[in-house]
Amino acid sequence: MYFAALLARTEDGWEASDLELDAVESLSDLIDLARSAAVDDDTVVALIEQEDAWFGVIRVDGEEDPRYFVSNASTADRSSYGSMLTKELLGSDEEDDDLDELDLDGTEDGEDAPLAAFTEEEDDEDDTSRPGSEPVPAGPLGDPRLLDDLGVGHKELMSLDGDALTEIADALGATEVLEAVR
Q1: Cα–Cα distances in Å, from 48 out to 59, 85, 126?
Q2: ∠ CA 137-66-8, rounded to 5°
Q3: Phi–psi pair at 2, nearest 5 degrees
Q4: CA separation for the pair 163, 53 (Å, rounded)
Q5: Disulfide engineering: 146 pairs with which of 60, 62, 67, 91, CB 3.0-4.6 Å?
Q6: For residues 46 and 29, is the Cβ–Cβ distance under 8 A?
Q7: What is the mean pLDDT of the chain?
Q8: What is the reported pLDDT for 19?
Q9: Cβ atoms of residues 178 and 5 within 8 Å
Q10: SS3 for 15?
Q11: What average pLDDT does range 110-138 have in this prediction?
């Protein structure tokens, strides 16, 4: 289960809105939603969490390039929304496939799945790599300093676990508005 919210900075503090992930098919969709929530091109922070397994932070400041942080890249990469972030952070040029069109048995066009011999060598391979791409590291990935100027230091961000979004909201002074959309 995912929880996602947008926090938009205003003159009076932070405004929160629930982020409906069903409408998000790509990272650019998410960035567009964040930019549309901005008040006077001020900072918007998108927060995504999957059942305390990982969390992601996306910071959008006006038309500047977004900044990203993922708490546990290898775990996030195994989820649909987390993989959008890890692909961006690792510089993957792959096009995002529609999740419904993925062929999960490894065959194409209805061919029978080939029987593969399992070897101990394959068992030792790192599950965090994708063919033809950089391996996905275990642990944090991205810009841990993206919230430094907002009260969440990089060391604190890298050490968060459990209900990290609440701790981030506490540091930003946005606890009440975040809890209102939960």
Answers
A1: 12, 10, 26
A2: 115
A3: -105, 150
A4: 10
A5: 67
A6: no
A7: 81
A8: 86
A9: yes
A10: strand
A11: 49
